[in-house]
Write the structure tokens for this entry.
Amino acid sequence: MADLQQLVDALSELTVLEAAELVKMLEGKWGVSAAAPAAAVAVAGSVAAAEPEEEKTEFDVILENHGPKKIDVIKVVRQLTNLGLKEAKEMAETAGAKVLEGVSKGAANDAKAKLEEAGATVKIA
């Protein structure tokens, strides 16, 4: 029989994502469900909340409103995205349009500053 302490030690080193994948694999192999009663889920939820959250490394720059200087905003959108005039105009006129996706924090802040300088309302998500 396997050394149970070694098994416990090995399982303790798993990340949350690896543990979730292990649960799925075991459910499939054994044909069972690992769903816990409501009380146990509440306790597990509070434990999960205590774990540190991974720092976000990719950001989206979202154009909320082009503001009073639409032409200036279109110019900045073209600089940031290399889109054509028509596509940049459509993006500037679309509330909630993602100007940049999955960029670094520095690039997102730089793009936000340029768009806000042109008169747009921008958020980083």
Observations:
- Strands lie at 59-65, 97-103, 121-124.
- The radius of gyration is 24 Å.
- The chain has a mean pLDDT of 81.
